[in-house]
Amino acid sequence: MSNVNKTGKTAEFTAPGLKDEAASKTIKLLDDRLVALIDLQLTLKHIHWNVVGPNFIGVHEMLDPQVDSVREMTDTIAERIATLGGVPFGTPKSIVDRRRWEDYSVGRGLVKEHLVALDKVYDGVNSDHREALEKLADLDPVSEDMLTGQLAELEQYQWFVRAHIESESGELKR
């Protein structure tokens, strides 16, 4: 990331009407979300490959559309970072270096084990998306709107996951 200055911007421009300071703060928030979503799409694919047991096929087939959707979200965020004058970094080492959470720990595992772990992943991603939204409200309404739409999809995906680990009374079986 040697060509990025300390504000996260590299270009001498940003979106018209957006101040450089707001653009730099927005880029930083979006970069964190980019890392989280790249990590999420890889985790989803890992689960897709490694889930076994009862309900395998339903979970296996549920995950690919989530992978595709999250991949589109990362592309949208990366392009927004570039639009604001930043550089979206998506190389494996740069992602690992910027990640603030532990790696997904389940290898080959039963459906319930993976879905309980995935629910926790979605807890983190969705909570952090919501926190970023609060900050973006004062910085950049376009980026805020973009993340709002993504959060709606991410929360629905978490609901899909929870439907597999929920009791009939609504309790999550963790």
CATH top level is Mainly Alpha
**Largest sheet, spatial ordering of strands:** 1-2
Distance between the terminal alpha carbons, to the nearest Å? 40 Å
* Reported CATH architecture: Up-down Bundle
- Sheet-strand content, in percent, reads under 5%
Largest sheet data: 2 strands, parallel
CATH fold annotation: Ferritin
**Global outline:** elongated
CATH homologous superfamily designation? Ferritin, core subunit, four-helix bundle
**Tally of individual domains:** 1
Given helix and strand content, the structural type is mainly alpha
Task: Detail the poorly predicted runs.
Answer: 1-7
The percent range for helix content is 55-70%
Q: Give the ordered list of helices and strands.
A: HEHHEHH
The DSSP helix count reads 5
Mean pLDDT: 93
Description:
This protein is an all-alpha fold. The chain has one domain (20-165): Ferritin, core subunit, four-helix bundle (Ferritin), CATH 1.20.1260. It has five helices and two strands. The chain has a two-stranded parallel sheet with strand order 1-2. Helix 1 (20-50) packs antiparallel against helix 2 (56-83), helix 2 runs antiparallel to helix 5 and helix 4 (111-139) packs antiparallel against helix 5. The longest helix is centred in the first third of the chain and has 31 residues, at 20-50. The protein starts with 19 loop residues before the first helix and ends in a 9-residue tail after the last helix. The relative contact order is 0.16.
